[in-house]
């Protein structure tokens, strides 16, 4: 009996000492995560662009320079740079000479006019505005009804509805867009994973990227270039 008691006491002492000396796995794991997160943040350089880098001395829009900036932003967000992506990018500065603040880049993955469905990714540089526009029926296709999934960054999605622009003083329409005007002022602040849709068919809408730019997947019934009309007459 005495031997049993003594053996139990020894085992208890060993177990206690082992637990006491065992490192706190939760603390170590948390610390490792913090270090890893900090390392990732340090590796990402801040996105900084100037409008001057997108134009030559004569004011001609340099599409390849714009694509350089877009690829840099996509890499920043860990967007998959697949073979042929650069060649697929369509972009425009709306002939305004202010691509940094007013422009659009996209990749159309599918636009099936027979079955009437489409899928595309939109790329907006930090603070860049996608000009206000509407979609109408054209060439046998209906007016486009669409929605947007924010994949990376943040986008201010603006359309018809109550004017709440006073809640978003950071959303400033550049003067190069219709002297700083738009017809719609209802803003939805959309973050990664958020989905928003066009409020009404044929209604005016536009977007502006947040400080880290925006990668947006757009889905819709079908896109028809001839059906697009822009609020700024100089952009049509």
Kindly list the characteristics that best describe this protein.
alpha+beta, 9 strands, isomerase activity, nine-stranded antiparallel sheet, 236 residues, Jelly Rolls
In short:
Keywords: Isomerase. The chain is an alpha+beta fold and 236 residues long.
How would you describe this protein?
The protein has 236 residues and is α+β, with helices and mostly antiparallel strands. The protein has 2 domains: 40 residues; 190 residues, Sandwich (Jelly Rolls). It has 4 helices and 9 strands; from the N terminus they run ααααβββββββββ. Keywords: Isomerase. InterPro entries: RmlC-like_jellyroll. This is D-lyxose ketol-isomerase. It comes from Nonlabens xylanidelens. GO terms for molecular function: isomerase activity.
CATH superfamily of the largest domain: Jelly Rolls
Number of domains: 2
CATH architecture label name of the largest domain: Sandwich
Task: Determine the structural class based on helices, strands and strand pairing.
Answer: alpha+beta
Radius of gyration: 26 Å
According to CATH, the fold-level topology of the largest domain is Jelly Rolls
SS field, number of helical segments? 4
Q: What is the average of the pLDDT values?
A: 88
- Rough outline: globular
